[in-house]
Amino acid sequence: MADDTDDALESTLAEAFASDFGADEETAADAASKAEAFREDWAEDLTAEDVLDELAATPYEDFQHRFDDAIGELAAATEDCTDSREYRLAGFGDLAADPTQGA
Fold first, then answer.
1. DSSP 3-state assignment of 7?
2. Extents of the domains making up the chain
3. pLDDT in tens, 53-63
4. CA gap 94, 41 in Å, rounded
C-alpha cells in the first residue's frame, strides 16, 4: 500500500542516507526501502526523523553497520517486533535459520 507519505519517507531517507551518511545511491535506496517496509509492518508512526536520529546515535562509521544497528534499535523499541533481520541490509546471514523453513 504505497501512498504519497510512503514515497516521501523513502525519498527523504534515501537522500539523507547518501548526503549525510555517505551511502552510495543503490545502498541508500535499498536501506530506505527496508525502513519503509519496517514502518509498514511494525511502526506506522515511524518518521524519517526517527530513523535519522537513531542512525546518528549509532557508534559505527560504516553506513551498513550504522543502518543495521539503527533498525535493530528501532525494532527493539517496537512492541512485539522480535526480529529485525528482514529489515537490515545484512539480512539473515549465512548462519541464520531459514525463515521459511517449516512454513
1. helix
2. 4-87
3. 999 999 999 99
4. 24
